[in-house]
Amino acid sequence: MPVLIPTNRETAAEWRNESTQKPPQRAVYLHECGADAVLKQAYAHTATVWAGDFHNAKQVLAAMKKRVRKPAAKQADVQTAFHNHRMRQAQTSRVLNMLAVEIGAGFALDLPRAPDVRGALADVYGEPNNEPFLLPLNQLLGFIGAHEWHKKGVFVPELDAAVHVPFGVFSPLRGEYLGLIARAPLPEPCESAFDIGTGSGVIAALLAARGIPSITATDTNPRAAACARANIGRLGFGGRVQVEETDLFPQGRADLIVCNPPWLPAKPTSAVETALYDPGHAMLKGFLNGVRERLNPNGEAWLVMSDLAEHLHLREPDFLRQCFQAASLTVAGVLQTAPAHRKAADADDPLAFARSRETTCLYRLKAVL
């Protein structure tokens, strides 16, 4: 159901936000104002809808970011540091999202010096309708950036090709785990595989590139399923890979079942964060507890997991071992890699103390006979 909020105009307006934040209590249209005025309104639960020059709105947003993004105080307790980091992220996002613009019929942005945002919004919302709505400027800029990445693609060395990922689907920008999948020894025989939680379809494509003739990739996110189908077709693996919208496992059994679940047991605050955060490790447990019955004889389950949660004290060091044991799975081998993404080397990152020690592993699991 659309969320309508009162404005200083004659009618209420629909408020759209891809996060789980509560909508503002009201909105005020203004042609010009400063960052301090927008922030004052934001703290009073009132959104400012920019009706003036688009580039001026971007400058005001940049000034707002400088005011609200303060260095985090050091925490003695690691888990507290993580939760405070997440809380600051949520609070900062809520405040910044109080500067909005009105999107008109056909996804038009009718502001001086505004870019054409129709393609970016179509990536997120599909076909436009004729009803205007309000959208946080910060999110619109994110949509525009994601749209450019979607068109350009993310180059995957293991495929020697790019995958194209729209907003709302997890992108393999941090792709060191793909190197593990590329070099892990395949079980013998390996005529079939499942890719659980396929996202962009990059793992399914990589398995196809390794010569597995029959692969089923699954995801519950319709955007991800559509993205995976497009990438699989573009890469020429349509005859080998079938994409299904289903929770965890498809019907049947396979020689190899791969899963790269969310690595951190925390609550996501938006749809795209479900690829990063999994409350209580629900997907991980569902995969491990169900995979044994889906494996062919001599088959393997490959689990890709980071130990970042352990360094953040969100998971005990022996948690995975206990999960494997409870699921009647044994470890046939482990491949490891260190993170290569930018945050891993950023000493100013609030979680640098944990990221600097992170290791990503591919666990080769077999059923206990």
Automatic annotation (TrEMBL):
MF annotations from Gene Ontology: nucleic acid binding; protein-glutamine N-methyltransferase activity
Gene3D superfamilies: Vaccinia Virus protein VP39
InterPro entries on file: DNA_methylase_N6_adenine_CS, N5-glutamine_MTase, SAM-dependent_MTases_sf, Small_mtfrase_dom
This protein's record includes keyword Zinc-finger: no
Domain called Methyltransferase small: residue spans: 192-327
Keywords: Methyltransferase, S-adenosyl-L-methionine, Transferase
Superkingdom classification of source: Bacteria
Region Disordered: start-end pairs: 1-21
CDD domains cross-referenced by the UniProt entry: AdoMet_MTases
One GO process term, biological-process aspect: methylation
Protein name, entry field: Methyltransferase
